[in-house]
Amino acid sequence: xxxxxxxxxxxxxxxxxxxxxxxxxxxxxxxxxxxxxxxxxxxxxxxxxxxxxxxxxxxxxxxxxxxxxxxxxxxxxxxxxxxxxxxxxxxxxxxxxxxxxxxxxxxxxxxxxxxxxxxxxxxxxxxxxxxxxxxxxxxxxxxxxxxxxxxxxxxxxxxxxxxxxxxxxxxxxxxxxxxxxxxxxxxxxxxxxxxxxxxxxxxxxxxxxxxxxxxxxxxxxxxxxxxxxxxxxxxxxxxxxxxxxxxxxxxxxxxxxxxxxxxxxxxxxxxxxxxxxxxxxxxxxx
Length: 286
Fold this sequence. Notes:
Distance between the termini: 100 Å
Oligomer: single chain
């Protein structure tokens, strides 16, 4: 063990790139390796899903279509359980399924040979996983939360949606204090989604690089178990990303429904005495 520690201390160690590298530059526009690989992955994903779309049949078929259908059914089940409506689940499934497969396949494409330090342009890797770039995960989180807010506004209207953040008497100053905290929470959710995905992908990339370096010539053997583990982690993180997004949508919609129920409840209370008077009059006439 001491010899291994001393060997690692003397060696330079594996080269790990955390920040994206500049590949092309045109004026103020900088194209990084993560952006380049993200565009390539997006093109492959779009073509694959369009091809699968024309392969859909009533009778089940084998191949990649089974993988797409299984993922679609899983995400539809998540939305159905969160929103409690099959109709809404069918309505929002295309959006969240697209997010799910985009995150999942970007995670898996980052494990392909040639991605990372294998192919370089100078000292900069030519391809870098899009989800291993904080800019990429932050962009996905922003787009996802914009979709969530848009869907919530469509479900309840913009005034009711804003009102659910300030749930209470508008004459009470604490209503605005807690409402401001609720609005701030929406921004923290963006950061939470971005950091969770970014850190899990980067940590996996670091582990694979370290064990590949330790294996030297046997790097494919020493790193293979961790590559398999990262495939599972990539699937899990894509599922968590979508599940949390759907949960945020469900919370916003259910808050609006509860607020509507509270505002409508007082109007139904005076009906009880009227019914009692009518019953007394009927009894008296009888």
